[in-house]
C-alpha cells in the first residue's frame, strides 16, 4: 500500500508544533508495519534541507491563475527519517525559511498542492491513499475528484486529519481562478459562509476525516470556529484516533538532549540530576517542586491566565513552589511573564523563544507540567511528560481528557481540572505541592507514568485499518 502524507510541517525538517511531530513519526511506524508511506512537504530553506542531500525527481510548471510557476520535486536521498521525504520547491513562493505567516500564504499552499497533484498525475503514479493533514492540503480531495485535470486519479481514496479545527485557511471567491479547471456544478463543496474554505472542503470531499483524539471529534460539533454544523452533518465519516509519540526521539533512557539518562527504575535519581541542571541554568531552588509550561503562548493553550495564576500561587505559597515557562507567541503574554520573572526571580523563570533541546531537558527535569488548554485536539506535551515521569496537570478537554487519568482515580497518574481559570489552576498547584511532599506516592506515580505506552504502534495500526476500510472512490 502506497500512501502520500501531505503536510505543512514534519519533524525534524520544519517544526512549529505537534503537527510536525505527528507527520515525522506516523509514516515511520507505517513503514515499519510494511506500508510504503511517504511525506510530501513544501520546500523550506532550513537547516535540515541545507545539511542533507536531495535529488530532483521531477520538474515541470503549474499554473496559479495567470502565473506560470516552475516547480521541482526533490527527494531526500537516503530515507534517513525512516520514510521517503519529498519537497515541493517553487522558486520565490515555496522555498522560504518560515512555515507560516507570509502575506501570500494562501498562494504558497495552493501552489504546493497543485504541484503535488501535477507531479503524481503526469508521472502516472497511482497511490493507494492520499492522506492530507490540516487545511494546508485541504483542497487536494476536492481537486482530485472534481478537476478535469486529474480525472485519471479520481478514484484515489483520501483521508483528511484535523490537527486543529480552529484554522480553516479560508479565502475569497475572487481567488477561484487559482484553481485549475473544475466542475462548476460542484463549487458548493468548496464553500462555507460565502468563501472558499479548504478545511470544510476536505471534510466534505475526503473519504474519511479523522481527529487526533476521540473527544475532539465530538468537540468539533460544539466549537470549531463556525464549522460546527458541518461537523454535525458529516459526523458519519469522522473517526477519532489518538496521536502516539515517537519513542525513539522521546526516550529518557537514550535522549542525548538531557543531562542524565534514566529509566523507570531510576526515575527519582535520574530526574533529580536533570532537575539540578535545569534549576542551575534558571536559578531556581532544586528542593522546591518545579511546575513547568512548554508551548505556544496563545489563548488556545490558556497561556493568557498563566501569569495571574503563577502570581497567586506564589503569593499563597511563599517559598513552596517554583515555575519555569518555555514558550513564544502573543507579545502581551510574553511581557507579563517577563514582568513576573523580575518580580519573583527566585521562584519563576521564563525562556521566551523556541528551543527544541531545552524542551527535552524541561520534560526530564520538571516535577509537573501545566497544560490549562482551552482547546487541545490531542496535545503531545502531556505524553512526553508522562514518558519522562513528569506529572501532567491538565484541563479536561480533547486529547488531554483522553490520555490523562487523575491520580485520585483508579489507576490514575496525573492532575485534572475542569476550567481554564486561575482558581482551578491554583487548586491543581496546591494538589501538586501536596503530592510532592509525599515522596513515596510521587515515586509510585512516576513509575506508573513511565510504564504507560503511548507509542505510535497502536494508533498507526488504527490508521492502517481505516485505509483498508475505504474503497476506491467512484465519483
Ligand atoms: P501544538 O501543536 O498545539 O502547539 P502539541 O502539544 O501537539 O501542541 O505539540 C507541541 C510541540 O511543540 C511539542 O513537541 C512541544 O515540545 C513543542 N514546543 C512548543 N513550544 C515550544 C518551545 N517554545 N520550544 C521548544 N519546543 C516547543
Ligand atoms: C495541533 C493541536 C495539538 C495536537 C497537534 C498534533 O497542533 O493543537 O493538540 O497534538 O496538532 O496532532
Kindly describe this structure.
- By secondary structure, the protein is of the alpha/beta class.
- The protein folds into 2 domains: 2-244 and 457-469, Rossmann fold (3-Layer(aba) Sandwich), CATH 3.40.50.2000; 264-452, Rossmann fold (3-Layer(aba) Sandwich).
- It is 36% helix and 20% strand.
- The protein is built from 16 helices and 17 strands.
- The strands form 3 sheets. A 9-stranded mixed sheet has the order 3-4-5-2-1-6-7-10-11, with helices on both faces. Strands 14-13-12-15-16-17 form a 6-stranded parallel sheet, with helices on both faces.
- A hairpin with a 7-residue loop joins strand 4 (67-76) and strand 5 (84-89).
- Helix 8 (267-282) crosses helix 11 (356-365).
- The model has no long low-confidence stretch (mean pLDDT 97).
- The site of adenosine-5'-diphosphate has 18 residues, from helix 1, strand 12, strand 13 and helix 11.
Amino acid at each position: 500500500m502506497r500512501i502520500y502524507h501531505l503536510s505543512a510541517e514534519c519533524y525534524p525538517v520544519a517544526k512549529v508544533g505537534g503537527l510536525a511531530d505527528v507527520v515525522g513519526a506516523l509514516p515511520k511506524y507505517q513503514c515499519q508495519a510494511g506500508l510504503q508511506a511517504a511525506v510530501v512537504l513544501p520546500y523550506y530553506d532550513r537547516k535540515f534541507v541545507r545539511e542533507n542531500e536531495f535529488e530532483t525527481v521531477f520538474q515541470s510548471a503549474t499554473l496559479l491563475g495567470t502565473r506560470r510557476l516552475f516547480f521541482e520535486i526533490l527527494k531526500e536521498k537516503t530515507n534517513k527519517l525512516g520514510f521517503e521525504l519529498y519537497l515541493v520547491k517553487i522558486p520565490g513562493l515555496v522555498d522560504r525559511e518560515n512555515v507560516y505567516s507570509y502575506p501570500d500564504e494562501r498562494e504558497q499552499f495552493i501552489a504546493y498542492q497543485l504541484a503535488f497533484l501535477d507531479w503524481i498525475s503526469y508521472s502516472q503514479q497511482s497511490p493507494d491513499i492520499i492522506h492530507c493533514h490540516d487545511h494546508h492540503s485541504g483542497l487536494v480531495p476536492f481537486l482530485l475528484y472534481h478537476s478535469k485535470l486529474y480525472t485519471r486519479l479520481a478514484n484515489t481514496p483520501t483521508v483528511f486529519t484535523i490537527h486543529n479545527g480552529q484554522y480553516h485557511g479560508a479565502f475569497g471567491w475572487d481567488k477561484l481562478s487559482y484553481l485549475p479547471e473544475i466542475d462548476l456544478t460542484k463549487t458548493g463543496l468548496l464553500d462555507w459562509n460565502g468563501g472558499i474554505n479548504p478545511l470544510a472542503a476536505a471534510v466534505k470531499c475526503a473519504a474519511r476525516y479523522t481527529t487526533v483524539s476521540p473527544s475532539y471529534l465530538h468537540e468539533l460539533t460544539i466549537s470549531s470556529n463556525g464549522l460546527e454544523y458541518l461537523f454535525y452533518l458529516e459526523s458519519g465519516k469522522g473517526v477519532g484516533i489518538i496521536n502516539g509519540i515517537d519513542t525513539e526521539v522521546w526516550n529518557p533512557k537514550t535522549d542525548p538532549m538531557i543531562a542524565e539518562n534514566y529509566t523507570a527504575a531510576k526515575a527519582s535519581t535520574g530526574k533529580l540530576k536533570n532537575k539540578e541542571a535545569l534549576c542551575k541554568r534558571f536559578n531556581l531552588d532544586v528542593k522546591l517542586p518545579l511546575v513547568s509550561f512548554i508551548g505556544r503562548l496563545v489563548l488556545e493553550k490558556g497561556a493568557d491566565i498563566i501569569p495571574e495564576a503563577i502570581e497567586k500561587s506564589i503569593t499563597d505559597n511563599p517559598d513552596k513552589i517554583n515555575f519555569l515557562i518555555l514558550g513564544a507567541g502573543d507579545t502581551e503574554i510574553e511581557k507579563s511573564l517577563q514582568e513576573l520573572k523580575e518580580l519573583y526571580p527566585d521562584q519563576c523563570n521564563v525562556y521566551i523563544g523556541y528551543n527544541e533541546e531545552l524542551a527535552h531537558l524541561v520534560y526530564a527535569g520538571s516535577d509537573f507540567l501545566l497544560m490549562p488548554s482551552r482547546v487541545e485536539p490531542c496535545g503531545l506535551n502531556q505524553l512526553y511528560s508522562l514518558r519522562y515521569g513528569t506529572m501532567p496537570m491538565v484541563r479536561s478537554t480533547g486529547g488531554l481528557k483522553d490520555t490523562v487519568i487523575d491520580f485520585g482515580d483508579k489507576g490514575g497518574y496525573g492532575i485534572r481540572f475542569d476550567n481554564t481559570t486561575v482558581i482551578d489552576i491554583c487548586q491543581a498547584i496546591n494538589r501538586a505541592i501536596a503530592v510532592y511532599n509525599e515522596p513515596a506516592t510521587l515515586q509510585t506515580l512516576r513509575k506508573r507514568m513511565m510504564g504507560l505506552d503511548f507509542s505510535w504502534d497502536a494508533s498507526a495500526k488504527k490508521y492502517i485499518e481505516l485505509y483498508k476500510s475505504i474503497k476506491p472512490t467512484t465519483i
